[in-house]
């Protein structure tokens, strides 16, 4: 995806919107059994409240064939992807078309589905606490918490058998800040990846995080961990911006998001507009142009969506020197090849939360 990154730099130099996808994010389902307090679409509702029909594995394969013309990296997320009994078939379709596949999940029942690990290159496991009681509180039950803990142990052990590279993803909420630091420590001890985003409600950061000294101290500690060599995702500008929730220029087309029914969110999931069916359009550019005609230019949000998937990618695209350093840090460790084209961040909702 170096060509896309460089092409986007050229667009920025000309004052244009960077529109070459670094990766695609496909919500394979909105279904989910969890009750995470941060799960939120752009309107503030949990994804599982949005009943969207799902492409079959064969239809997903057709979709992947279209998307592969534009990018070689695919994020499979939800909802909780593992609620689909045919997830292995969906992942197989993506791999057959040459995608580098990242799976965002909390991992329920993962130990009973070993083929899932074989079929993804990067596993982003959402772990918002290590303390069993706190994790149960976040997820909505002790059984849920135990299943995540089992998945975590299974995924970390699976790396020894040439399994996927593992990234621990966490959402920083007002009442789990100490747990975030524990997850960071585990990631350092296990030499796996770490990524965090603040809790977003709808499109705005949780008000209890603004001006929160404990939260700012946590971000400083995460940034310091990165400087000492921890495998923390994000260019330096991301940590500065997310610490104080600075305004930023979002470039949502760096990671186009696709609904379970194959419709493209334009310009982003958070605005909720999904008018163009990619399969019916026959190509991603045609679907994108349809969205532009219907919804117009990309708005300048500035003080919204302080998420890694938006802010992190946007700042990386605008920071080529930092992106080069990021590549050098990650290359040969957990597969980062062009900054953010191989590792897709969890978003504030569903499995990828």
Describe the model.
The structure is a single chain. The chain is α/β, with parallel strands linked by helices and 353 residues long. It contains 13 helices and 11 strands. Strand 9 (257-258) and strand 10 form a beta hairpin. The radius of gyration is 18 Å and the shape is globular.
Low-pLDDT ranges? 332-350
Q: Give, in order, the helices and strands.
A: HEHEHEHEHHEHEEEHHEEEHHHH
Largest sheet geometry: 9 strands, mixed
Strand tally, please? 11
**How would you state the average pLDDT, rounded?**
88
Question: Structural class per helix/strand content?
Answer: alpha/beta
How is the CATH topology named? TIM Barrel
Q: What is the total domain count?
A: 1
Global outline: globular
CATH class: Alpha Beta
Second CATH tier, the architecture: Alpha-Beta Barrel
Q: Note the gap between the termini.
A: 25 Å
- Assess the beta-strand content as a share of residues: 5-15%
Give the fraction of residues assigned to helices. Answer: 25-40%
The number of helical segments is 13
Give the name of the CATH superfamily. Answer: Aldolase class I
Q: What is the alpha-carbon Rg in Å?
A: 18 Å
Order of strands in the sheet with the most strands?
6-5-4-3-2-1-9-10-11
Set down the secondary structure blueprint:
Layout lengths: L1 H12 L10 E4 L29 H11 L5 E5 L9 H10 L3 E6 L8 H6 L2 E5 L5 H8 L2 H17 L6 E8 L4 H14 L2 E6 L1 E2 L2 E2 L7 H15 L8 H9 L12 E2 L4 E3 L10 E2 H4 L2 H12 L12 H10 L2 H11 L23
Parallel strand pairs: 1-2, 1-9, 2-3, 3-4, 4-5, 5-6
Antiparallel strand pairs: 7-8, 9-10, 10-11
């Amino acid at each position: 995806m170096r060509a896309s990154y460089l092409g986007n730099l050229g667009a920025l130099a000309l004052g244009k919107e960077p529109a070459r996808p670094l990766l695609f994010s496909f919500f394979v389902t909105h279904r989910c059994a969890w009750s995470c307090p941060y799960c939120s679409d752009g309107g503030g509702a949990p994804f599982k409240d949005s009943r969207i029909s799902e492409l079959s594995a064969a239809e997903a394969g057709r979709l992947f064939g279209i998307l592969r013309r534009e990018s070689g990296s695919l994020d499979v997320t939800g909802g909780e992807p593992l609620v689909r009994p045919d997830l292995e078939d969906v992942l197989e379709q993506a791999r057959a078309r040459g995608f580098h596949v990242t799976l965002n999940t909390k991992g329920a029942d993962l130990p009973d589905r070993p083929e899932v690990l074989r079929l993804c290159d990067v596993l982003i496991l959402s772990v918002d606490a290590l303390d069993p009681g706190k994790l149960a509180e976040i997820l909505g039950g002790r059984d849920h918490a135990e299943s995540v803990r089992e998945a975590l142990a299974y995924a970390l052990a699976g790396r020894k058998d040439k399994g996927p590279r593992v990234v621990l993803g966490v959402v920083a909420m007002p009442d789990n800040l100490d747990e975030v630091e524990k997850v960071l420590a585990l990631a350092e001890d296990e030499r796996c990846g770490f990524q965090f985003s603040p809790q977003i409600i709808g499109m705005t950061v949780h008000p209890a995080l603004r001006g929160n000294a404990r939260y700012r101290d946590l971000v400083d500690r995460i940034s310091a961990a990165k400087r000492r060599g921890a495998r923390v995702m994000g260019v330096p500008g991301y940590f500065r911006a997310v610490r104080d929730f600075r305004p930023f220029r979002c470039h949502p087309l760096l990671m186009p998001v696709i609904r379970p029914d194959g419709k493209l969110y334009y310009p982003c999931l958070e605005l909720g507009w999904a008018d163009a069916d990619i399969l019916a359009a026959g190509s991603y550019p045609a679907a994108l142009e349809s969205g532009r005609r219907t919804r117009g230019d990309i708005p300048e949000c500035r003080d919204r969506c302080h998420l890694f998937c938006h802010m992190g990618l946007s700042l990386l695209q605008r920071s080529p020197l930092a992106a080069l350093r990021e590549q050098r840090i990650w290359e040969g460790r957990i597969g980062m090849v062009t900054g953010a084209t191989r590792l897709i961040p969890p978003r504030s909702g569903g499995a990828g939360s």
